[in-house]
Amino acid sequence: NRSPTAILEALASTVRNDVNQPIYSTIDDPFLYSTTDRVKKAHLAAYESGRKTAEHMLALYPDYFTQIWDDPLPDAWKKDSEYIYAEPCEDALNERITKRKVVEAIDMYRTIISNGEPLSQESQEKLLELLVVFNCKDPVEETDIGSYINAPDYRAFSPFPPCTWQKANAAEEVFDALPEKTASAYCQMIRGMSANYHKEGVLSMYNAMKANKMPVDVETYNAILKVASLDTETIDDVKLFVETILKDMAANNVKPNEKTFISAMVNLRRLSRWSGAKKFVLALFSEMKACGIEPGLSTYVQILHIFYYFKDRSSKTPELLEQVLDDLKGKEFECKTENDVQFFRSVMGMIAAHFPDSKLALRLHELLQYGKNRDLLSNRQAQYGYYSDLFTVIIPLEHIDVVMDLYKEVVPYIFFPNSETFKLILESIEMHEGHQYVSQLYTDLQWTSMFKDFDFLSRFTQTLAERKHEAKTQNELCMIASSLMDQWTRKQHLHDALPVNGVVIGNLIKTHLNNDDLKTAWSLF
């Protein structure tokens, strides 16, 4: 068996993939190229809004589009189409469950119950599953582009995440009315309460299952472990809770998986400032290895967050991080859990905060470039933060050739540095006499408004005028100086003119004098 795209993937593997390219939808229109993070967000948001508008028009007027395609529109596009079953009945309830219309399904359920009509156990459990997954609210549709643009929700890792489960809600109403309270129904309730940080309800349901000797599956045990640190006073309480659940799993012959140990480690991450958290997380890691479970990125990111807590600025050593990078070297990863996408962004932040070591940063970046690991830089905030920290670490410590190799790899379409990062690059150029790279910077800076900042413009022209270079490089610098002066001359009476003053013009004059071009220098004077 092979996937529908297997042949395309095979063909794609034969060509070099240069990811530093404009977004494919704008490739034929340079005016729409997205460079800075702000412009990229605006263009992607506009693209997403247009797609939603088109879907809305198709849903409102499906009959107008029948002549375009021979086949009828897919049901998924007919989001606002009428229901087949309008009257209260079990089929009407199942229809709303299938369409994920949570609020309408609740109303239909209550109408059926009030009419005294029977509902099957299966339909009621399907409704219960819908309610606990979406917390009794209509789901908010999220697309791939929306997920990339918007910041992720990190409430799960805060020390005290708020409980978002409302007591006596529709899910509890359906559960209480079930003809038979099966193990499946209990497990669904536990998962829903855990996802909304309702520890009291989770424990109540779990104790009821134990009292009735009902089987608990591994995903439900994982959900129970997630709430271990909520409403606890000491790390010893958390350890006791986690150990008790793991012993229950062993007693019931339920084999743990990676998510089991990640769920336990998340609690220690919430309490990473407490003494004992580091020792216990290493004990969990040893138990995980003893169970024959291969740790993934999610496991490592939880351990590293505990050892390198970002608010703890005390002296730290990088030995643990070096061991992790050794273990991961030459491996390609897929996104298996929601925490996998945090690894590269989080670890680069740790390097920048605790031990700015360019060799470590480049080792991590080498791992990112291996295979398809780059896909794990999930959203634009993570992508921007990763590269921002990477440049901040390596620019002062590495030769300008190394810095510019990385620069050419990601600028301007993947990442565009801010003005402070550009100033660091200019300092590195002066230190290592790498003025041959200035023309590359100038080309990319034309996409931005950074030259309208006087401090940046004066710093840039200072690099142009620093000293005399060999003929080719000096000619390039003079062309840049002339280009800047032409821009100012054309717009000097407009509001968006370059902020040129005597300091900037003095630097431009020096640049031309370094090229023995007295005529142009005198003209500027």
Structural description of this entry:
Keywords: Mitochondrion, Repeat, Transit peptide. GO terms for molecular function: ribosomal small subunit binding; rRNA binding. One of its GO terms (biological process) is mitochondrial translation. It is found in: Mitochondrion. Residues 200-311 form the PROP1-like PPR domain. The protein has helices spanning 6-12, 37-60, 90-98, 102-114, 121-133, 144-149, 170-176, 183-195, 199-211, 218-226, 235-251, 258-270, 277-290, 297-307, 319-328, 343-354, 358-369, 380-394, 400-410, 419-432, 438-445, 454-464, 471-491, 502-514, 518-524. It has 525 residues and is an all-alpha fold. Among the domains are: 33-79, no CATH class; 295-398, no CATH class; 435-524. α3 (90-98) runs antiparallel to α4 and α10 (218-226) packs parallel to α12. The chain starts with 5 loop residues before the first helix and ends with a helix. The model has no long low-confidence stretch (mean pLDDT 87).
Q: Which spans of ≥5 residues are poorly predicted at pLDDT below 50?
A: none
Helices and strands, in N-to-C order?
HHHHHHHHHHHHHHHHHHHHHHHHH
**What is the 3D shape?**
globular
Largest sheet: none
Number of strands: 0
Would you tell me the structural class of the helices and strands?
A: mainly alpha
**CA-CA gap between termini:** 75 Å
Classify the beta-strand content into a percent band: under 5%
Helix content: 55-70%
Measured on Cα atoms, how large is the radius of gyration? 30 Å
Give the overall average pLDDT. Answer: 87
H/I helix tally: 25
